[in-house]
Design a protein that fits this description.
The chain is built from three helices and ten strands. With about 200 residues, the protein is of the alpha+beta class. The strands form three sheets. A four-stranded antiparallel β-sheet has the order 1-2-3-8, with no helix packed on it. A four-stranded antiparallel β-sheet has the order 6-5-9-10, with no helix packed on it.
């Protein structure tokens, strides 16, 4: 008998939960009748205003370039950071922008001339960091399959369009704070390593 009582009690609780949910739903609908319809568009309008302010806040947070490398046909590589991590790498980040008036194909030379890198498609695989003090040149790292650890799949940039980019290199010695970034078809730029 206790099993029957438990089963009946469970059904009763389930029915009570469903009834309470329906009552809440009806109350919510009833409260939005006359004045609720007028208020809802105002809320969505203010929500869209909030959405509009979020991107501008993000734009305000974008980092100022620490170096600008000019390329061909209006291309501009703006470097925003060069961070050293504990794993012995330096990650250079920035934006590639088309400052020209027409669309531009990113030059194939940016991939470098190594067959292993080129076979993986257009990239910044040809970029290097030069440590003048230590008289060393550091090339973009590759994974075990030869893919460069950098932005890949480069193609065409429309006028005014920008693309976030990164390049990862072996880290120079801890005492080296300034290096020169060289990317084929772009001017060179001196950047400071942080971290």
């Amino acid at each position: 008998m206790s099993i029957r009582f438990t089963a009946k009690a469970r059904r009763g609780v389930a029915a009570l939960v469903v009834a309470a949910g329906l009552a809440s739903g009806v109350a919510g609908c009833g409260g939005g009748g006359d004045g609720g319809d007028d208020k809802k568009p105002e809320k969505s309008a203010s929500a869209s205003k909030d959405d509009g302010s979020q991107p501008s806040a993000q734009e305000g947070q974008s980092e100022a370039p620490v170096a600008e490398l000019k390329g061909t046909e209006g291309l501009l590589l703006q470097i925003t950071s060069a961070e050293r991590d504990s794993g012995g790498f330096v990650t250079v980040s920035g934006n590639l922008k088309n400052d020209g008036a027409k669309s531009v194909v990113i030059p194939a030379q940016t991939s470098g001339d190594e067959t292993e890198v080129i076979k993986h498609g257009p990239s910044f695989g040809g970029a290097t960091l030069v440590d003048s003090k230590g008289k060393k040149r550091y090339y973009v790292l590759r994974d075990t399959e030869g893919r460069p650890l950098t932005t890949a799949g480069l193609g065409t940039l429309e006028a005014g369009q920008s693309l976030p980019v990164f390049m990862q290199f072996p880290a120079p010695p801890a005492g080296t704070a300034e290096v020169t970034l060289q990317v084929p078809t772009f001017s060179s730029g001196t950047i400071k390593i942080t971290g």
